[in-house]
Amino acid sequence: MQLDKPAVFIVGVGEKSHYRLLNLFHCAELIVEDFETAEAFLDSDCWKKPGCVLLELSLPEADGLALQRQLHAANSRVPVIMLVDPDDIVNAVQALKQGAVDVLEKTVGEQAVLNSVFRAVSQAVFFWEKEKQIESARRRLSSLTLREKQILDLVLRGTLNKVIAYELEISMKTVEVHRHNMMEKLSAKNLVELINLVATAGGREIYCLQPRGAATLGSPIPLSILTPATSC
């Protein structure tokens, strides 16, 4: 399977439907991975990749509902489509309660199967890309030095450079250098991009240096720092 390409993971589907589904997905140019049992699927680590799971309620050595619970316990975001017998309403409802994106009767038409799979794959790709954005943002934030994190925190509070210099007891020039390096490491061109990156990473708590609501660094700021100098 191509890395990071969305796929359909067929798990434990009976022989009667198996080849029909394989042919259907190949004709639709979908990448397909086939597993006889839930254990084989879990051991493959495919549930950590983008795609959707198409499985039968009655699996060899297990059942589809149990696999759903295992995926949920492992924090997997892979969407699940459950195949059930036409009269199995109780388990169909239970599958939906456990987070299945769709429940299909085994006798459902091919177009209905494709529609469901394409919706599930689109959802998987959306969450996969979102997770990658979060990981990227957090990785960039973790690359900052302690001083750069202090300056980032103050910048996000709307603090002026000269106030940052006073708070951290460093020169304005040093603040500007650290701020430039911080923006370079975070690949942020302006304050809006900086705010969006921190929000994507999960907010201020990701790099937080002190509890929310705690006093800011240093002593009270003299008014002379905030007031522009005037000439006579």
TrEMBL record:
Residues 1-121 form the Response regulatory domain. This is LuxR family transcriptional regulator. InterPro entries: CheY-like_superfamily, Sig_transdc_resp-reg_receiver, Tscrpt_reg_LuxR_C, WH-like_DNA-bd_sf. The keyword Transcription regulation applies. Keywords: DNA-binding, Transcription, Transcription regulation. One of its GO terms (biological process) is phosphorelay signal transduction system. GO terms for molecular function: DNA binding. CDD domains: LuxR_C_like. Residues 137-202 form the HTH luxR-type domain.
